[in-house]
Write a structure and sequence with these properties.
Two copies of one chain form a homodimer. Chain A has helices at 16-28, 44-56, 84-94, 105-108, 135-138, 142-157, 169-181, 211-216, 219-233, 238-256; strands at residues 10-13, 33-38, 59-64, 98-101, 122-128, 161-165, 187-191, 262-270, 286-294, 297-305. By secondary structure, chain A is α/β, with parallel strands linked by helices. Chain A has two domains: 10-191, 3-Layer(aba) Sandwich (Rossmann fold), CATH 3.40.50; 207-305, Pantoate--beta-alanine Ligase, Chain: A,domain 2. A six-stranded parallel beta sheet of chain A has the order 1-4-3-2-6-7, sandwiched between helices. In chain A, strand 2 (33-38), helix 2 (44-56) and strand 3 form a beta-alpha-beta unit. In chain A, helix 6 (142-157) packs across helix 7 (169-181) and helix 9 packs antiparallel against helix 10. The longest helix of chain A has 19 residues, at 238-256. The first copy, chain A, starts with 9 loop residues before the first strand and ends with a strand. In chain A, 42% of the residues are buried. Chain A binds chain B through residues 16, 20, 27-28, 30, 108-111, 120-130, 147-148, 151-152, 155-156, 158, 177-178, 180-185, and chain B through 16, 20, 27-28, 30, 108-111, 120-130, 147-148, 151-152, 155-156, 158, 177-178, 180-185.
Chain lengths: 309, 309
């Protein structure tokens, strides 16, 4: 925190105890608090969540915390962008007042946090049945880390409303289920994905992309749009849609070969109810989603078809 | 709830929503709430927790809920004593006012609750490193069920203070760790075990005992007391103490053979820090604990030696 310039209107808390005092006063004043959990590296997607929180509640709080429990040992925990000064400046330009809790790992995980799940000790939250598929296939412990840290933060922030971005669709389903099952006293809001002008979904990980990679990063969105278009115009048969999308990614991969490595992780058409793959025709709504590696950067995106999460 | 007589001063809630309204008013009145979670079949042990809650807080709430997630398919979920009318009457005699939430299983577990863990779906809380030993050896999923339901209730009741009995020592350690790790905004109180005049720890499961079994039920307490006495007078060597306690149980087993079956589950001397067995001499404090079957009834008890949980 050394050398940090706190812009006007922004209150930064490094300790949970001090944050709780600030929050307690809002409660006693009978005002409401809207909460946006983040890992920092704020972009327009985050700021749109902040706007929604501001519109719905008297006060806005953010947390900025790169959560070790949702990274596996081979992932980008060490290099994940940390841009606290820029985050605070962006917030101050975006709204007149906000509280930002920036806690230490040791305070968030009093029992410590081992990178390897088998060695972890202490309390963890799992949402069974919704965490092993899609993103959970390549990242089996990701949602356990997410559900655990969101539980912690909901208990610390105690907001009336919490705001998540639809870009992390499975995360939204997992957290929604957790809030419901564990009876957290909070209203969950899921807000549309904010995109660059060409359609690329905003993501803190986009900053990893070189200019060439940025050009090809649109491949996933294009594949999802293709499925949506075919769904509307020609077929509701999920495997046919996925085959067409996969074909598009493969084609782009070949075109890019010389200048940029592209690797498909998955393309999925899943039921919003249980996140299981649609095997035949899409009956009601569905979540079309996917993940690709562009260079070493893993990008995700999704489109909701006749679904309101 | 048909035919239930609600005694004066007692408010019974069957829905979480209505309970939350009652609780909200206490908050707005800037008063405090003490909470005692129970599975009903209230005995003097529970009532002593209620007294502690009343002394510490402006209002007292209990939950009465036989939690399916903490019973395995072969345990006594079906026959666990359900004595709601007697519970409410006992409460009314014990204090002038209290709120009692008696929720339905379907409302507590919105994703349903399968008896077999492998089939369960939805959000669950686990406290790793503290749930697999001692009670967790014979009841591997017990503390997952306990941690999950206590999480739910803490989110529903939102008490300033919560009260647990030391009789369930490992449960206290697990819940304490969970509250700490997940940052529940509540003060945890652990209250001494209440005993019958001969020393038998109060337990709802004592009602299962026939008069003959009741006579032999003291075997566990006697074994623990023997270890405590030897610790004070002759040796601090944990394996020696456990051998003596086991010997006492075996002797009682032989004496009882004709009229009552006694089976030792475990006798343990564990560190209060990590609940691991003390292998050699007891250095600081320890938890002396055990479980025995008297007939088909499983009884547990413990003594804390130089420990304040």
């Amino acid at each position: 925190m050394n050398g940090l310039r706190i812009p006007p209107g922004i209150q930064v808390f490094n300790s949970i105890k001090n944050f709780r005092q600030w929050r307690r006063q809002i409660l006693l004043d009978r005002q409401t608090l809207g909460y946006v959990p983040t890992m920092g590296a704020l972009h327009r997607g985050h700021l749109s969540l902040v706007s929604k929180a501001k519109a719905a509640c008297d006060h806005v709080a953010l947390t900025i915390f790169v959560n070790p429990a949702q990274f596996s040992p081979n992932e980008d925990l060490g290099t994940y962008p940390r841009t606290l000064q820029a985050d605070l400046d962006a917030l101050a330009q975006h709204l007149d007042k906000a509280a930002v809790l920036v806690p230490q790992v040791a305070e968030m995980y009093p029992s410590g946090i081992e990178p390897e799940v088998s060695k972890q000790v202490g309390a963890f939250v799992e949402v069974k049945g919704f965490s092993h598929q899609l993103e959970g296939t390549t990242r089996p412990h990701f949602f356990r880390g997410v559900a655990t840290v969101v539980s912690k933060f909901l208990n610390i922030v105690e907001p009336e409303q919490v705001f998540f971005g639809q870009k992390d669709a499975q995360q939204c389903v997992v957290i929604q289920r957790m809030i419901h099952d564990l009876h957290f006293n909070v209203k969950m809001n899921i807000c549309s994905t904010v995109r660059e002008s060409d359609g690329l979904a905003m993501s803190s990980r986009n900053t990893y992309l070189t200019p060439i990679q940025r050009k090809y990063a649109l491949v996933l969105y294009n594949a999802l749009k293709l499925m949506e278009e075919m769904y509307e115009k020609s077929t509701k048969h999920a495997p046919t849609l996925i085959a067409a999308a996969t074909e598009l990614v493969n084609r782009t991969q070949q075109e890019a070969q010389a200048e940029c490595e592209i690797k498909l992780d998955y393309i999925s058409i899943a039921s919003p109810k249980d996140l299981n793959e649609v095997k035949g025709d899409i009956a009601d709504g569905c979540i079309m989603s996917g993940a690709v590696y562009v260079g070493k950067t893993r990008l995700i995106d999704n489109l909701m078809v006749n679904v309101n999460l």
